[in-house]
User: Which sequence fits this backbone?
């Protein structure tokens, strides 16, 4: 018994020293009969009687909910492009535009990216990425070609991340 | 031990309320959720007539049920999230003749609380939950309990349609009860999260359980006395892994449920509860498959085994299920097998088992039609299920239940 309580003492401390992901309440089991019904009448999880609704409608995590585009693809795009400084992001139009970024290893070139999430469904053709590249020549930045595979690779990275997010939700 | 528990709680609380990164504050919200269901059931069961009292029963019935949930949630400027949930239910209300559960006599339409708890959480430290709630292996972090079709199959509404002894015992997640407890659940690290819960006893709700009387076995804080073998100092620990490989989502849980037993001063003492729990589930392309296995020292219904009896065997229980969802239709099946000592005064062990196949169709989000067939069976040689005592008659009883219904949730 004492060992178990010692474990109970250690776990929060271990958690405090580490970088973890916060587990949301809907990732824990719920033995109510209500939890076994798919979706909710009216779209939101319960009727809001006080406060401001910041949640997505039920099923929104799949369909996009309050977003104009698929939530998994949108979050995956933001995650994947997070190494670039963000210039603008429109969650309703599904457009992410980054600023220019020079990798430390190659200061003579810089990149920016534009990502379009094309719809509310999680589909392999639901995201398009365009990478732009410039090289520094004689003190000025000039456009340089980008291999077509770079765009495809980036799209695949986003799709893989979206699949991961979807699977995490499905296994709850 | 209490000092250690308090220290544990204090450290967790200090960490929770300590400095944290500035985050966007969110004013609390209060939501009211609800559930209503209507079932037609056709029940063909043994012992459907009263014993020597001239009573007989039919097979068809309509039955309704409802839940009301009040859900509070908010976020402080320091990143602390907090909230409370109160769930009101009708579905555990029975009449005064109920012998198979621990409920006091009450109206069949009476409303009582199911879960009611508050919680605080931070991204760095995880969540602390306090109140009448399932433990980490009482449903919160279990894997493999596949019930997302029909009314839930072997963890569904069949139980509400069966009279008396053919109500087979189950030891599913959630069956150990919502006794008032404190629960810690960690953040997720590399797919893993951990949890532990503790309850001093099996009491839930407010008060002491025996207010206005001299202390007796009904008191929440009952530790020793005549008669009762009750769980006390109940703890659950769990580890869970969730991830995906090649598009297959998986969730795997392992853990342990243990408790001491209140001391019986006038009869046989009891064995501590000591049960291991493992479970796993996998999902891909709309298919969900899973199962779990429990084993250890306990009698049916998480009741402690009395020492020195004819039969003191450990329990084992397994559950398996699968479902397939396409468009709004989910079809599935599940089955379970529970082996316990049952009546400890007879040598044979007890077997409770059942299987179910069913489907649910979502007419609209939150509005569903369900259909389900269930069969449950109980057997213990030398035990008469009709009289609840040793005997050669009624050593096996069964029930077949067909349910067709509809439910809404908001």
Assistant:
């Amino acid at each position: 018994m004492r060992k178990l309580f010692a474990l109970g003492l250690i776990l929060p401390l271990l958690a405090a020293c580490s970088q973890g992901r916060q587990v949301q309440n809907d990732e824990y089991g719920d033995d109510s009969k209500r939890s076994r019904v798919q979706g909710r009448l009216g779209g939101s999880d319960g009727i809001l009687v006080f406060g401001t609704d910041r949640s997505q409608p039920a099923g929104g995590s799949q369909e996009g909910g309050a977003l104009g585009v698929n939530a998994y693809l949108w979050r995956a795009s933001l995650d994947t492009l997070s190494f670039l400084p963000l210039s603008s992001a429109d969650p309703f139009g599904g457009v992410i535009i980054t600023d220019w970024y020079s990798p430390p290893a190659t200061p003579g070139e810089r990149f920016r990216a534009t990502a379009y999430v094309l719809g509310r469904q999680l589909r392999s053709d639901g995201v398009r990425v365009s990478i732009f590249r410039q090289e520094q020549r004689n003190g000025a930045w000039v456009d340089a070609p980008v291999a077509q595979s770079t765009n495809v690779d980036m799209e695949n990275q986003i799709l893989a991340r979206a699949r991961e997010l979807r699977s995490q939700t499905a296994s709850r | 031990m209490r000092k250690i528990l308090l220290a544990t709680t204090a450290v967790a609380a200090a960490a929770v309320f300590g400095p944290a990164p500035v985050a966007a504050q969110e004013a609390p919200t209060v939501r009211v959720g609800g559930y209503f269901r209507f079932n037609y059931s056709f029940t063909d069961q043994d012992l459907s007539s009263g014993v020597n009292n001239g009573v007989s029963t039919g097979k068809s019935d309509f039955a309704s049920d409802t839940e009301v949930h009040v859900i509070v949630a908010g976020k402080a400027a320091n990143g602390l999230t907090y909230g409370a949930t109160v769930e009101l239910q009708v579905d555990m209300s029975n009449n005064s003749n109920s012998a198979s559960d621990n409920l006091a006599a009450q109206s069949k339409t009476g409303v009582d609380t199911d879960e009611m708890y508050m919680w605080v959480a931070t991204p760095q430290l995880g969540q602390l939950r306090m109140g009448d709630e399932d433990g980490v292996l009482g449903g919160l972090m279990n894997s493999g309990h596949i019930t997302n079709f029909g009314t839930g199959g072997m963890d569904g509404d069949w139980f509400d349609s069966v009279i008396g002894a053919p109500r087979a015992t189950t030891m599913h997640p959630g069956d150990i009860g919502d006794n008032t407890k404190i629960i810690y659940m960690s953040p997720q690290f590399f797919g893993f999260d951990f949890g532990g819960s503790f309850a001093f006893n099996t009491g839930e709700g407010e008060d002491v359980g025996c207010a206005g009387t001299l202390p007796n076995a009904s008191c929440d804080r009952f530790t020793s006395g005549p008669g009762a073998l009750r769980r006390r100092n109940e703890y659950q620990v769990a580890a869970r892994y969730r991830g995906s490989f090649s598009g297959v989502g998986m969730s795997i849980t392992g853990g342990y449920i243990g408790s001491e037993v209140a001391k019986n001063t006038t009869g046989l003492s009891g064995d501590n509860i000591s049960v291991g729990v493992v479970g796993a589930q996998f999902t891909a392309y709309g298919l969900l498959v899973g199962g779990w296995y429990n084993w250890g020292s306990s009698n049916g219904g998480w009741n402690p085994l009395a020492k020195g009896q004819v039969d003191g065997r450990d329990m084992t229980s397994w559950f398996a299920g699968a479902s397939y969802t396409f468009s709004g239709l989910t079809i599935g099946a599940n089955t379970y097998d529970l082996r316990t000592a049952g009546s400890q005064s007879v040598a044979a062990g007890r077997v409770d088992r059942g299987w179910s196949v069913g489907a649910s169709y979502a007419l609209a989000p939150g509005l569903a039609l369900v259909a389900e067939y269930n069969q449950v069976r109980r057997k213990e040689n030398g035990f008469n299920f009709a009289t609840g005592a040793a005997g050669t008659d009624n050593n096996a009883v069964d029930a077949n239940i067909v349910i067709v219904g509809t439910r809404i949730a908001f």
